[in-house]
Amino acid sequence: MKLSKNFVKDYINIDVDIKTLAEDMTRVGNEYDSALMLINATNLIIGEVIECEMHPDSDHLHVCKVNIGNEILDIVCGAPNVRKGLKVILAQVGAELPGDFKIKKGNIRGKESNGMICSLAELGIESKFLSDADKNGIHELPNDAPVGEDPIKFMKLDDEIADFELTANRGDLLSILGMAYELGAIYDKPVKEIDLNHSETLEDINNSFKVEVQTENCSLFLAKKAVNVIIKESPDFIKNRLIASGIRPINNVVDISNYVMLEVGQPLHFYDADKLGDKILVRMAKNNEKLTTLDNMERSLTNEDIIITNGKEAIGLAGVMGGLSTEVEADTKNILIESANFDGIKVRCTAKKIVRSEASNRFEKGLDPNRTYMAIERACTLLEKYADAKIQKGTVVYDKADKKEKNIDIKFDDINNLLGIEVPEDETLNVFRKLGFEYKVNGNTITVIVPTRRLDISIKEDLIEEVGRIYGVDKIAGKLPVLPTKTGKYDKTTREIRNKMIGLGLNETMSYILVNEKDATKFTTDKIDLIKLLDPLTEDRNTLRYSMIPSLLKIYEYNIGRNNKDISIFEIGKGFAKIGEEYKEEEKLCILISGKYFTGINNEKNADFYILKGIAEELLDYLGYNGRYSFLNNKEFPKEFHPGQTALISVNANTVGIMGKLHPLVTTDDVFVLEINLDKLLEKKVGKMKYKEISKFPSIKKDLSFVVDKNVQSETIEKAIKKSAGNLLTNIEVFDVYTGKNLGQDKKSIAYSLTFNDSKKTLTDDEVLGIFNKIIGDIEKAFNAELRK
């Protein structure tokens, strides 16, 4: 919202500069982007060209003598419209123009030049506000412009502008009146009444015009008629205030519509009454219904769009844009004025498809129904004054809006307890007075009557916020809380998992929970409904993720693109889905490894399935699930996983995750991922940890390798080895898997490292050898295996 200081001064007396005003507004919660003069130029003066001749050494330059009152200056000017007798804007030597452009004394092709005759564009006025003459040459001042005076003040462009970034709940500040009330609260100044006085003809509009509403998405619709309108150029003060607010002046009628919207905050629409007919019908559009809008574009509508019709066909999109068929043109004589209140959500959805505008922005934020009445009367006042209109008697009214003020009870103690300071009772009441809120006090309770212009206030906490920001948050003294503290338990296990992952050499990442719809369906076989955003900032991030693997894969691709090929990362985050009628938000752990995996100082291995499996085992053992988990590969896997190097992670016979290599169609690199649903995992109770004394006696390690069929799982062999060896086998690890032509096409070799130990004595080689030979015999018999030598 651009605030014109001259505009707001119509309703409140303020004598501070725009920078101070903007800072004071920020102090009460309204941040600004910029606070500048409308024309940020210095050392300008009105001059009169008393001589103008062609430059002897140029076909387009002119050598001029310009009278500035106290002296006559030689100026070289290249504008095609410069001529003798013209009143102009002159930037004198030493002047500074927008863009850090400084005017210096110069010599142009042998002729001295002591300044520059300016166009409005050179003074910083945007091109969209300029006439064709101003775009192509210098600005021509009227004949009555006083030589030697300040041209900015003469043109009434001596305005100051603050551009505010307002929060979504403060729709009331999208108007000059709303800003005036806010400044009134800051500076304790009264807000002046708006002029709504105008005369009316004897003819009543209700006798010749009807309004019908057939949708609940229009709560209020007002119509008045202005006849014998004369369309012409707007007065300077209207044009200048529109320019200061970022709106291009067009003609007096269109400008009055925009002026009232800025002034009151209520968008209006003007129809050519002679083209319209005798009726307006507001309804929802039909699917594929057509409407040609003011921009001469044919729009295909849906049943979610609110439209204005003449009872037969659409003539406007409610809150967004009018129709071409009832456009106000230069020869328009009679105008129907619309002031209405439409559903903000519907208007927003329609505006997204067509065009977002100043009007739709205000409908989206919500409108004060009392301002709807005020705006139409204000438009009539200005049309009568500046368009010579005659206003017909009466108003056609459709009104289902709630115009009651809100009564909110609040206690002084509520305010002090929530703010954490003691605000004197008289100061609290003074805040409500400054805000223009009426109130009644009954003991410790205040009943505050909130005007309808403040749609953002509905509960007592809103009033406490008002007291805090107007009284001054800077008056709240900072202090450290004094209370006993202890380690929290809410995310204790999550923190332990995070520390374990870091201890295993993984780097933590944090990624967006938003992905594109296509990625959201990957890496899962679960039957889910995706959760999509209604209004995504970008289509690349329009859906809440279910699996976290796409997020980590994006990070992997980012690193690979920057030549970082050794990647070991993890993330603990959320996955989202709708299953049936229930919305799910589940915490998950996701791991991705590729390239070299560093297991310690000067110790690295190529990432593979078994390293990832080892990480999973370390985590599950650490969390107390030792002996209760298994890895299953006889299930259906998502198509993004390599079918021969993927396994489901099962705890207590329930699947809690998946791990494996990514399919070559996903990436040709060796990338291994793991994802565990922590909510499912941690709901499985863990018994008390049992600790065993470290054996005092030495262990004996033996290695062996079996050649078996490719379809035999290592897990099955490991179980058989443990059963055959008995309690003296304390550990078993796979340290090599080999396939090759010398083994046969359907064969593979699996090498195991076995650790034997007895906590009561030192084992002898003969004891271990006996167990070792028994293992070999049992495995060869059970799996038709062959000991590899």
Question: Would you mind describing this structure in some detail?
Answer:
- A hairpin with a 4-residue loop joins strand 19 (306-309) and strand 20 (314-317).
- The chain is elongated and about 120 Å long.
- The protein has 21 helices and 42 strands.
- Helix 6 packs across helix 7, helix 7 packs antiparallel against helix 11 (369-386) and helix 12 (412-419) crosses helix 14 (460-471).
- It is 26% helix and 30% strand.
- The strands form 12 sheets. Strands 28-31-32-38-37-36-35 form a 7-stranded mixed beta sheet, sandwiched between helices. A 5-stranded antiparallel beta sheet has the order 5-4-3-6-11, with no helix packed on it.
- The chain is an alpha+beta fold.
- The mean pLDDT is 92.
- The protein starts with a strand and ends with a strand.
Topology, please?
Layout: E1 2-4, H1 5-8, H2 18-27, E2 31-37, E3 44-54, E4 62-67, E5 72-77, E6 87-92, E7 96-97, E8 101-102, E9 106-108, E10 111-113, E11 115-117, H3 132-136, H4 151-154, E12 160-165, H5 176-187, E13 210-213, E14 218-227, H6 236-244, H7 252-264, E15 268-272, H8 273-276, E16 279-284, E17 290-292, E18 298-300, E19 306-309, E20 314-317, E21 321-322, E22 335-342, H9 344-353, H10 358-365, H11 369-386, E23 390-391, E24 396-399, E25 406-411, H12 412-419, H13 425-435, E26 438-442, E27 445-450, H14 460-471, H15 492-503, E28 507-508, E29 514-515, H16 517-520, E30 543-544, H17 549-560, E31 567-579, E32 582-594, E33 596-600, E34 603-606, H18 609-622, E35 629-632, E36 641-651, E37 654-662, E38 671-677, H19 678-682, E39 700-709, H20 714-725, E40 729-738, E41 747-756, H21 765-783, E42 786-787
Parallel strand pairs: 13-16, 28-31
Antiparallel strand pairs: 1-12, 2-12, 3-4, 3-6, 4-5, 6-11, 7-8, 9-10, 14-22, 14-23, 14-24, 15-22, 16-19, 17-18, 19-20, 20-21, 25-27, 26-27, 29-30, 31-32, 32-38, 33-34, 35-36, 36-37, 37-38, 39-41, 39-42, 40-41
